[in-house]
Amino acid sequence: MVVDRTVKRRHVKDGRLCLAPENPASPLLEVSPETSFEIRGVATCVIHRG
């Protein structure tokens, strides 16, 4: 089992629901009724340093 824990945003592409990762090295994940996934948290704030 692959565990992917990265921030993703809901995205609609060509009428299909996808999860778009913030990490450009990770692939777009298409979500269908058969897709099994779990939302583990919701980011509500981002703190930038520098």
Report on the structure:
There is one protein chain. The chain is an all-beta fold and 50 residues long. It is 0% helix and 28% strand. It contains no helices and three strands. The protein has a three-stranded antiparallel β-sheet with strand order 1-2-3, with no helix packed on it. The protein starts with 7 loop residues before the first strand and ends in a 20-residue tail after the last strand.
Give a quick rundown of the structure.
With 50 residues, the protein is mostly beta strands. The chain has no helices and 3 strands.
List the helices and strands and how they pair.
Elements: E1 8-13, E2 16-21, E3 29-30
Antiparallel strand pairs: 1-2, 2-3
Q: Could you list some keywords that capture this structure?
A:
50 residues
Counted beta strands: 3
Helix tally equals 0
Using only C-alpha atoms, the radius of gyration works out to 13 Å
Let me know the average pLDDT. 82
Strand order of the largest sheet: 1-2-3
Structural class: mainly beta
Report low-confidence residues grouped into runs of 5 or more.
Answer: none
What's the shape?
Answer: globular
